[in-house]
Amino acid sequence: MTKKRTVAVGIVATLIISLMAAIAPAHAARDLKGSQCGREGLVRTIKGVTYTCERVSGKLQYAEGRKLSGTLNVLCTPQELWCVEMTKAFQEKTGITTKFIRLSSGESLTRLIASKGNPEFDVWTGGPNDSHISGRIQGVLDTYKSPTRNMLKAQFKDSDGYWTGIYMGALGFCSNKNELKRLGLKAPTSWNDLLNPKYKGNIMMAHPGTSGTAYTTLWSQVLRLGSEDAAIDYMKELNKNILSYTRSGAGPTGPLGRGEIATGLVFSHDCTAAILRGNPLVVSFPKEGTGFEIGGIALVKGAKNPDAAKAYIDFALSAEAQNIGPAKAESFQILTNPSARYDRRMVNLKKVTLLNYEAEAAGVAAAKLKARFDKEVALTSSAK
Amino acid sequence: MALKKSGSKYDIFTKIALVLVVAIIFFLIVLPLINILIFSTQPTGSVIVRNALSDEVTRQILWNTMKMGLSVAFLGTLLGFLMAYTQARVDFKGKKILHIINLIPIISPPFAFATAIIVLFGRSGIITRGIFDWRPTLYGYPGLVLVLSLSFFPIAYMNLLGMLRSLDPALDEAGSSLGANKLRVFRTVTLPLLIPGFAGSFLLLFIESIADLANPLIIGGSYTVLASRAYMAINGDYDIPMAAGYSFLLLLPALLVFLVQRYWAQRKNVVSVTGKPSGRSTPVTSPIARFFLLSVTFLLTTLILMVYATVLLGAFVRIIGVENSFTLEHFRFLLGGFANAAVKTTTILALIATPLAGIFGMLIAWLVIRKVRRGGEALDFLGMLGIAVPGTVIGIGYAITYNDPVKVAGVTIFPQVAGGAAILGGAIAIVMVYVIRSSPAGQRSGISLLQQIDPSIEEASASLGAAGGRTFRLVTLPLISGAFLSGLMYAFAHSMTTLSPIIFLVTPDISILTQKILAEADQGRYGNVFALCCMLIVLIMIIGGLINLLVRRFQVSTDRPLVTGR
Q1: What angle (nearest 5°) sits at the alpha carbon of residue A70, between those of residues A67 and A72?
Q2: CA distance A203 to A234
Q3: How many domains, chain B?
Q4: Interface touch A382/B222, C-beta < 8 Å
Q5: Strand-strand pairing, A164-176 and A334-335
Q6: CA gap B553, B172 in Å, rounded
Q7: Is A181 in the same domain as A321?
Q8: 8 A C-beta contact, residue B462 and residue B444
Q9: Cβ proximity of B104 and B305 under 8 Å
Q10: Assigned domain for B4 exists
Q11: From the CA of B74, how many Å to the nearest CA of chain A?
Q12: H-type helices in B474-525, by residue range?
């Protein structure tokens, strides 16, 4: 009898304990909002909730956490390798399935406009911020002010929150050492050097229509010469020496590497990357001052996964994410997060004269100025 | 002399086929086109169209496009004909190898030819500078014509070879037994019989070349053509109406050439009896002719081999021509995660589209030549729209049309199939594009071949009691199986290598190989470009070879003699 009783007690006890366990409230994940964190801008996912570390009244603490789910679709403009690494890193950190496609800035904007009624992307990362300004004008972007933006200099963020800067690049001259020698030239150090007849058919740059790099070149002339008319005149002169216009900003590095041309107008970080791949190139900057780009990141209006998009933006602004560029993605843009590591291969901005590049004015003037370029500079050359 | 159409009324099979074909054409090309045309009537678009001839810039672009198209069509057809004639009528060793080499350019991925030509013959070319110390500028018209002719001549080659082999040698023999010498026979018998083939090839090559976008982007330089201008309008000016305006202008030359071809081909309509030759045609023996033909063949073949050697080498050295150390870094990079998904996805989608495109093309050809009396020309033209309209425009058209469900009066008649938020992540739209872009080639060669075949064979089948569908399957298809097979091969190769519409249809879920190649070419990373091209070519060869084997088992043997003389 005792044995049966013991068994019966055992069964009942098990049932009661299971019942209690089932109806007992689940052990809630502790909400970390407000608790202390170690580094400003750091993004962490703890028990499925993603937090960003922000500075509030001098104190470092976690901002409101987000429970992320679903898929994140990223529209990525910089080099594909960078896109691959960033996507991988975010996915590993948060566990969210992250996908991307890479399109140049002009194509990205068109794609966003075309899918305005049913947005297919959640966040647009990279590309010069004047295209994000155009995006704001076209009504395809939404505002988001990341807690991390407080770390950034004023020039790296939009006051309304439509875009935030994740990197910066300086426009420069990228020259083939052997070709320079053959032509008896030294690496150009002035915009006017490029007008030298010896460069005829020996220069390449991208087309301002598709390439953010080339538009930066164009707008730089407006800034340094004082007016759009003067800029167009300079480009007309330069056009005489240009062999052809490529589609993408870094496009000239191919022909440059092979020695088909002497000089290309590219962002210095693209030239550096090409040099590291074994091309015999050298970087130089114009003494009159040069333009630069601020790579922007923005939230897409009507994003299907806005929470994940915001977490991604926070992540992209963090030092940890920005360090991926030089470390794993052969990208040597200057980074906007002050805690990010400065890599020796990045341009030393102290040695470069930068023009006061007003992205807002550049973005607003973009459509008309590019049309003028087409009509008066690029297409006339084929009409000859 | 109009061709007699068989059948006095449409049977069930024909009716169903007709409805199906029209519906497919409507959704796959007409609807996106209508949307594009609607956009072109908006201000920035209509301005382009109205001032097409008066505005200096637009007129220049129009002229550039026509000049390039006509040059490529002419040169490509000429090369294709010379190679086909040599293959069919000259005895020499190594025919099979030559045949394969002639077909390789079809499976050439975008940028492969252009980049290889630049590396070999450009300003810093291995041949031009390395050996001759020339620095020719290939960017622009010369490079474009060279690259496009090399890329597209196989289409003319296949077309004309198929026709040459179907010519009845009895006609040649009749001519020579009447006292004509070989040259005269060639001039008055062979050439006229080939006119549909010439016309068809010329047309296809013209349209393919003016619609091409990849090559003008890389090797076009400042030579702006309509396709690259439309592309710039979308990507640079974010102006869809303007791009639509340019594409409207692009349709006009295509339409014009198409109509000219039809008029010309119909004036000299010669039916060569049954389509099945009896006995062998006599080979060319004149030493002058042999020397001429074989030298041209040799030169062209060498050129093609050099290009592909460059692609192969370029994939395995760091920077070809600059730093020639052997390396596997390109492949390691690509297969280490950069291109894996793209390889799988592109191949699967192309395989799905290939049989669909092949059958569709044959169906249209059959309907146009045999069944549809009134409106046959319209159907033919609509079927060709897939390649007459530039790829960029199709891509935009699809994005506009299929990024949302298609609704008529609030009722959804077609679901959303494009864009990341669509069914299957946008794969359907891409397959649709593949099908409509590759069926015209099969349609064209099917029509050329069917025009050569006397309808009396099919009438015989019908009079023996076979329904339309049975006749199509058991009589027509085997007769045009050559065209069907070439249609399949072309569809697969073309789908794997098409670029321009895809730029607008790639989604995070669907990545396509050609888009990856573009990304690398953009950055000037030619090592990766060549490595990706190698991978593409190998894929196409393997799978193309399998398709070839599969279809050959069902082909009618070509050495049984059939009725001749009429």
Answers
A1: 100
A2: 14
A3: 1
A4: yes
A5: antiparallel
A6: 31
A7: no
A8: no
A9: no
A10: no
A11: 23
A12: 477-479, 481-497, 513-522
Residue A174 lies in a domain: yes
Query: How far, in Å, CA of B199 to CA of B447, rounded?
Result: 12
Same domain? A274 vs A299: no
Q: What tens-digit pLDDT sequence spans chain B (566 residues)?
A: 344 444 445 678 888 888 999 999 999 989 988 888 888 888 877 877 777 778 777 888 889 998 999 999 999 999 999 999 998 888 888 888 888 888 888 778 878 888 888 888 888 788 887 777 777 778 889 999 999 999 989 889 988 888 888 777 777 788 878 887 877 888 888 888 888 788 888 888 888 888 888 888 888 877 888 888 887 777 666 677 887 788 778 777 776 776 676 666 555 444 544 555 556 677 777 888 888 888 999 999 999 999 999 999 999 988 877 778 888 888 888 887 778 888 999 999 999 999 999 889 888 988 888 777 778 888 888 888 887 777 777 887 887 788 777 777 666 777 777 776 677 778 888 999 999 998 988 887 788 788 777 888 888 888 888 877 787 778 877 777 777 887 888 889 889 988 888 877 878 788 889 988 887 887 778 889 999 999 998 898 898 888 888 777 766 544 333 433 33
Reference B469, options B363, B563, B398; nearest CA is B363
Q: Is residue B558 part of a domain?
A: no
Q: State the CATH number of the domain containing residue A112.
A: 3.40.190.10
Size of interface A-B (CB pairs under 8 A): 173
Burial B233-254 (b: 16+ CB within 10 A, else e): bbbbbbbbbbbbbbbbbbbebb
Enter the pTM of the model.
0.79
Put simply, the answer to whether B319 touches A370 (Cβ < 8 Å) is: no
Under an 8 A CB cutoff, do A101 and B507 touch? yes
A70 touching chain B per CB within 8 A: no
| A286-325 residues touching B, CB cutoff 8 A | 304
A120 and A136 co-located in one domain? yes
* A184 and A272 share one domain: yes
User: B47 with B249: CB under 8 angstroms?
Assistant: no
Residues of the domain holding A257: 169-292+352-383
The answer to whether B349 and B496 are in contact (CB under 8 A) is no
Per the structure, the count of domains in chain A is 2
Is A9 contained in some domain?
no
Q: Provide CB contacts within 8 A for B431, sequence distance 6+.
A: B349, B352, B353, B356
CATH no. for residue B404?
Answer: 1.10.3720.10
DSSP of B71-93, one letter per residue? HHHHHHHHHHHHHHHHHHH---T
Token pair in block for residue B514: 């050609």
Partners of A73 on chain B (C-beta within 8 Å) are 420, 507-508
Are A189 and A107 in a shared domain?
A: no
Determine the Cα–Cα distance for residues B528 and B530; give it in Å rounded to an integer. Answer: 5
Kindly list the residues from chain A whose CB atom is less than 8 angstroms away from the CB atom of residue B234. 107, 110
Evaluate whether residue B11 is within a structural domain. no
CB A284 within 8 A of CB A188: yes
The dihedrals phi and psi of A262, each to the nearest 5 degrees, come to -90, -40
For A181, the token pair is 């020698």
Q: Is A154 inside a domain boundary?
A: yes
Query: Does A198 fall in a domain?
Result: yes
Q: Are B401 and B39 in contact (CB under 8 A)?
A: no
| CA nearest neighbour of B501 among B514, B520, B510, B491 | B514
